[in-house]
Every structure is written in C-alpha cells, then in structure tokens.
Design a protein that fits this description.
Elements lengths: L1 E2 L9 E5 L7 H9 L3 E5 L2 H10 L3 E6 L7 H9 L6 E5 L4 H9 L4 E4 L4 H53 L6 E6 L7 E7 L5 E8 L4 H4 L2 H14 L3 H15 L6 E9 L4 E7 L4 E5 L5 E4 L17 E4 L4 E6 L1 H4 L10 H11 L4 H13 L8 E7 L24 E8 H6 L2 H13 L5 H20 L10 H17 L4 E10 L3 E10 L7 H6 L9 H9 L2 E5 L4 E9 L3
Parallel strand pairs: 2-3, 2-4, 4-5, 5-6
Antiparallel strand pairs: 1-3, 7-16, 8-9, 9-10, 10-11, 11-14, 12-13, 12-15, 15-16, 17-18, 18-19, 19-21, 20-21
Helix pairs in contact: 2-3, 5-7, 7-8, 10-11, 13-14, 14-17
C-alpha cells in the first residue's frame, strides 16, 4: 500500500512494516499530512522485495516484533544509502532494549504513540541520514582530492628528479648521502664540470622541507648547470642564482648553500659559504683539519651580494666534508643534538672513508628518534692528479652543420673587464653561430687561455712566476682582483673569423691587449718539459691549434683551429 501526501514535491519516503496495518491508519494518515510518502509492507519478505526494486527509501519504521536483528541487517544492506530505523513497540523491557541495541536500531516509541514524539524522532532520523550523506560526499571529495594530489606530486617529483639527477655529474670524486624528510627534498646537490675541467659543486638547503622547500630547486639547477657548462666563474654562478631566487621566492624563503670549485691545475679549492653549518677539510695523511664557517648570508635575501670567497691549497690527500643543518641538529632519544664535535670526531676516525663513518655515527646517535629535517652529507675527494671527471678535448662523432663564412669582434675596456668575463660569451656565440658543440671544450680552452694571458699579463702586468707554488696561485689571483678593481685603463679585443675548408672549417681567434707585450720567444724555450704551475697553458693551446702565432711586441696573438666535418 502506497500513501502519498496531497501535494507531493519530492516527499521523503518511509517504509512502514506492520502485520496489523489496519490498526495504524491514524498514524499513517498523520505522517501523510506531515508531508511524507508512506509505503506499507505487512512482512519482512514484502519489505525486502520493495527495497530490492525501489530506490530512495529514507526511513524504516518497524511496527511489529516479528522482524528484528538479522532482518534489520539485511534491510540496511539493500538500501542505497544509510537507512535509519525506528521501532514502534507495545512494551519496552530490558531484554527488548538489548535486542534493539544488537540490531543497531536508531530509536523507538511505545504504544499508544505520541504523534508529536514520533514526528520529532522521524525528523531527527532524516537529519541523521542527511548528515551521513554529507559526510559521504565529503569523504568522496576528499578521496578524489587526495588522488589528484598524489598524481600531481608524483608528476612533480618525476620532473624534479629528472632535472636534478639526470644532470648530476657522476664522478668518484663526489660521494653523498641524502635522506629527505618528505617526498620532496628541501636539500639539493648539484655537480658539474666546466669546459676546462674544473669541478663545481653546490650543496643547498631551502627553508623548510617538502614540496614548498623544493620549488626553487629546478631554476637553481638550470642556472648552475647551464652557466657551469658555458664556463662562467663560480662567483658569477652564485650571484646569478641569488638574483634568480630573490626575484622568485617569497620573503620568508631563502637558500642556505655552499658552492665549491676544485681547480686541478693549480691544486686549489674555492668555497663560497652562504649560511650552511661548518664544513671540514681533512687530510687522510696526518688527520689535520680546517673548519670552514659560513662567511655570507643565504641566497635569495638580497638582490646583490658582496661575496667573500675562501681559497685553500689541496692535494690528493684532502677530503672536503659538507653537510646541511639536519645533520648537526639530529637528536637522539635524550633530545641531544648530534653537533659539531661528534661530526668532526666521526670524520677524523678514518678520513679516507669519512662519509661512511660519519653516516654510521649519525644513524647510531639518532636511533630511536624520528627524523626532523632533510639530511645531506657530501664528501669531495680532492684527487687533483687523477681528475676522474676529466674528458678529452678531442672531437666527438656528431653531425656537423655546414661551415659558413662569418666574423665576430668584441672589445672590452677596463670597466667592462671588472664585471664581465667575455670567454663564455664568445664561446657560446660560436656554438650558436656555427654549432661547434663537439669542439666546445677545445675552443673554450683556447679562448680562455689567450684571454687570461691578455688580461693578466698584458693589461694587469702580473708576473706568472708568482704562481710557482699552490700558495703562489692564491696570491696571484688576489693580486689580480686588487689590480682589476683599481686599474684606471686597459682593454682587450677579441675577434673570431670562420671560413669553410674542404675538410670542414677553420676558426681563427685573434686577441689583442693594450699592454706592453713580452718577449714571446723566451717562453717557448722555457715551456719544454715544464712541470710547474705556470706556462703550461700555452703548450696546451699549441697542441689544440693548427698554429699559434704571436705578433710584434707580444700583445697580439693569432690561434688557428681547424675542424673536420663528421657529417
């Protein structure tokens, strides 16, 4: 039997189960007048059939003691949503109440039924159903949101790792242990070599951790890898990263970082420290160590920085240990931080295997405590004789574009020379114009050596003899910076002329400086068998070029580089 209200407008449906429906007519009419649609069933099987074929039942009222417990469970399983249940009973006793509780009945009323009380319980049951539906909708939305977030996080992590890991230079000289606190690492490690086989490394720690801390990693990696491969100096790279982060990051975010440059030819090491904890340079020969503290503010805070650079003489026995603050701040079960002393003590136990010992001591210290921050440990092995990352400047097999006729000239006065390194600019222009990418390293070595000689010895009048020792190398570059900042005049002119040849092409590089020149015949005699720290660059250029010719008083030089087409 179906009883509908006089003005149906999506009325709530109540399924009424009673084996004596005739006695409940007054109750049913009251509910119909209250705006509900009533569907009556005289038995549990009839009610089951209705629930199997009809949707939208919002409330079940059982007015018979013949169906409880198992029947109630089956009714709920058949409903398309949560189904509240009210029992109308003749009497209530403890046993009956226990049965209602076992059957998860929501409420009950006792005959004779108080209409007002029944209507209140019905309204309460429908509100409970609405709350349940609302909770289900929210849960469904939340699950959908979580799935979308996981997909986006996995995609972002794949891009993040592709940018950082696929470009990371794999070399035995760099060992690392990185343990992120979350899916995304707020620490980053970048390693790359310059065209003249200098090794650059950057270890950084963004504010915070997780996704928000890693948003700057991709642009930092782009700047670092791109500028290193083009041959820019370490300070120029750090300045560019700083400016990039300053323009990109919110004011409450920054990058604590240390940039390291290892220069095998001079057996020296440069460090630009910007907010990371202490680093250590340890010798595995005698265990002596140098502690390197931060000298600059973190990157991304100011638009321009006056960088303080630390230089060190190193040999094959030196190991550089870098770490982020997650290492020193790692706590044990008593709340004690790992700290500076424990880190240094662990490294000095066995400097030759210092990273493994340090990592083991850190794990032992923090055992039983949860990780609180990203943790990064890096070891740079200063094996300046082996140079495991070095590649030959010889040409690689690669398709070569058609050789063209062209000429490029650049001239820099002293003001420009103070702030611009024209070598990467010129070399990259050559790559763009002629596409000589497989010869990049050789061309870079030629241009950088000729320009350095013109600037250092021609314009700034520096004596190469100062570089006779590793300490002299650092003294030489300090003098260079002093004179470059104080010199009143001087200029260097560079020109590149290219023409096709039957085999490929010929690149002629001319460098002229405003200096007094030098006796260019004497260095040629002295270079034979030279094992010192100066003068070897000219012999390297000679080995790469078809010809190398000095002119006049020695302040003009012409280098000819012939290349063969691989196409």
């Amino acid at each position: 039997m179906n009883l509908s209200p006089p003005n149906p407008a999506n009325p709530e449906i109540i399924l009424w189960i009673s084996d004596e429906i005739i006695h409940d007519q007054s109750l049913l009419q009251f509910l119909v007048k209250a705006g509900y649609r009533i569907q009556c069933a005289v038995s549990a099987p009839e009610a089951t059939k209705f629930l199997e074929t009809e949707d939208g039942v919002g409330l079940l009222i059982i007015a018979t003691t013949a169906c409880l417990n198992a029947e109630v469970d089956s009714f709920r399983r058949l409903a398309d949503d949560y189904l509240p249940i009210i029992v109308v009973s003749e009497v209530i006793d403890d046993a009956l109440m226990d049965g209602y509780q076992d059957a998860n009945v929501d409420s009950y009323v006792v005959r004779p039924v108080n209409f007002r009380l029944l209507q209140t319980k019905i309204k309460s049951a429908f509100r409970m159903r609405q709350l349940y539906q609302h909770e289900c909708d929210q849960h469904s939305q939340l699950m959908c949101y979580r799935q979308n977030v996981e997909i986006e996080r996995e995609l972002a992590a794949k891009i993040y790792n592709a940018v950082l890991q696929s470009n990371l230079l794999q070399t035995e000289a760099v060992k690392s242990v990185m343990s992120p606190l979350a899916l995304f690492n707020g620490d980053l490690l970048l390693v790359e070599k310059t065209p003249d086989n200098q090794l650059y490394l950057l270890l950084g720690d963004f504010t915070g951790h997780g996704l928000s801390a890693s948003v700057g990693a991709t642009p930092v990696a782009d700047v670092f890898y791109g500028m290193t491969r083009k041959g820019f100096s370490l300070p120029d790279i750090v300045q560019e990263i700083n400016l990039k982060l300053y323009n990109m990051l919110p004011t409450n975010m920054f990058l604590a970082a240390t940039a390291v440059g290892l220069y095998p030819d001079s057996k020296t090491l440069s460090m630009i420290t910007c907010g990371l904890p202490e680093h250590f340079i340890v010798s595995d020969l005698d265990g002596k160590h140098t502690t390197v503290k931060s000298k600059n503010i973190p990157l991304g805070i100011l638009d321009r920085m006056e960088l303080e650079i630390k230089n060190f003489s190193v040999d094959n026995h030196h190991h550089v240990f870098l770490m982020t603050d997650g290492v020193l701040e790692a706590k044990n079960s008593r709340g004690e931080a790992f700290g500076y002393e424990r880190a240094l003590s662990a490294i000095k136990q066995n400097p030759g295997d210092g990273l493994a010992v340090l990592h083991a001591c850190l794990n032992e210290h923090s055992r039983g405590s949860s990780q609180q921050d990203d943790i990064s440990l890096v070891e740079l092995v200063c094996d300046v004789d082996q140079i495991s990352w070095q590649t030959s400047p010889a040409a690689q097999t690669e398709h070569q574009p058609v050789a063209l006729h062209w000429k490029s000239v650049m001239e820099f006065d002293i003001d420009a020379l103070r702030i611009v390194n024209p070598v990467p600019v010129l070399v990259n222009a050559l790559m763009e114009i002629q596409g000589l990418k497989q010869y990049r390293q050789a061309i870079f070595l030629i241009v950088s050596e000729l320009f350095a000689n013109a600037l250092d010895h021609g314009v700034l009048k520096l004596d190469s003899a100062v570089k006779s020792t590793p300490e002299g190398f650092m003294r030489f570059y300090q003098l260079k910076q002093d004179r470059l900042s104080s010199w009143a005049q001087g200029k260097v002119r560079l020109s590149a002329i290219h023409k096709p040849t039957p085999e490929g092409g010929q690149l002629t590089i001319k460098v002229t400086d405003s200096g007094d020149g030098f006796d260019w015949k004497m260095p040629y005699r002295m270079l034979e068998g030279n094992e010192g720290f100066c003068g070897r660059g000219v012999k390297l250029v000679e080995s790469l070029c078809s010809s190398l010719t000095y002119h006049g008083k020695g302040n003009r030089v012409t280098a000819v580089f012939d290349w063969k087409s691989c196409g």
